[in-house]
Amino acid sequence: MNLSKLKELEDLKAELGSLSNKRGTLIQDKVSECIANAREDFKKFFSSKGFSVYSTGEHLVAKYKSFTVNLDFPKPDEGFIGYYSVWDLKVNDEKYLVVLNDLGKYPRFKATTYPTPKTEDEKIQVEINQIKQRIKDIEKDIEEIGQKPWGYGLRKEMIKDFNYPQYETFASLLENLFN
């Protein structure tokens, strides 16, 4: 077993952990900002239409007589596969998901294959290569988080359609849903 490769692997794991934490913090901060903006957009939109609007914790309600719109936010640090955040929007009995993602980007999953290593040193080298690639990907994410605009997507709950409409603001999503 090659000790220098083992040390390199351990150093890379530490670097990956540090970068992952940094990316997570940046994402949480931006999700918190998007939630705050969406709260304001929701309140302004429905108040201007004559609805009563109130909130309890992570839950917003707009009500006009028996017509009700509910919006529920998760905690900003909750993770979702393929999205930065997913919110529940209920219009009377119709359920939607508001998905927060890079504007113009829809979730896609990629898989990378590596040759099957035969020796312990080859296994370590494959793991080193995988971690180096993940580090590159995370560094790119960190660089782009503040630069790329995020979008609000609207999907019907339980429908696996990844070609849903996206909007630059939550206000524009509401305007298009309730036109």
Assign a percent range to the helix content: 40-55%
Strand content: 15-25%
Briefly note the structural class of the backbone: alpha+beta
Query: What is the distance, rounded to the nearest whole angstrom, between the alpha carbons of the first and last residues?
Result: 66 Å
- The H-and-E topology, N to C, reads as HEEEEEHEEH
Q: Would you give an account of this structure?
A:
The structure is a single chain. The protein has 179 residues and is of the alpha+beta class. It has one domain (3-177). It has three helices and seven strands, in the order αβββββαββα. The protein has helices spanning 3-48, 120-145, 170-177; strands spanning 52-56, 59-64, 67-72, 85-91, 94-102, 150-156, 166-167. It has a seven-stranded antiparallel β-sheet. A hairpin with a 2-residue loop joins strand 1 (52-56) and strand 2. Helix 1 packs parallel to helix 2. The longest helix has 46 residues, at 3-48. The model has no long low-confidence stretch (mean pLDDT 89).
Looking at this protein, list some descriptive labels.
alpha+beta, 179 residues, seven-stranded antiparallel sheet
SSE layout:
Blueprint: H1 3-48, E1 52-56, E2 59-64, E3 67-72, E4 85-91, E5 94-102, H2 120-145, E6 150-156, E7 166-167, H3 170-177
Antiparallel strand pairs: 1-2, 2-3, 3-4, 4-5, 5-6, 6-7
Helix pairs in contact: 1-2, 1-3
Question: Short summary of the structure?
Answer:
By secondary structure, the chain is α+β, with helices and mostly antiparallel strands.
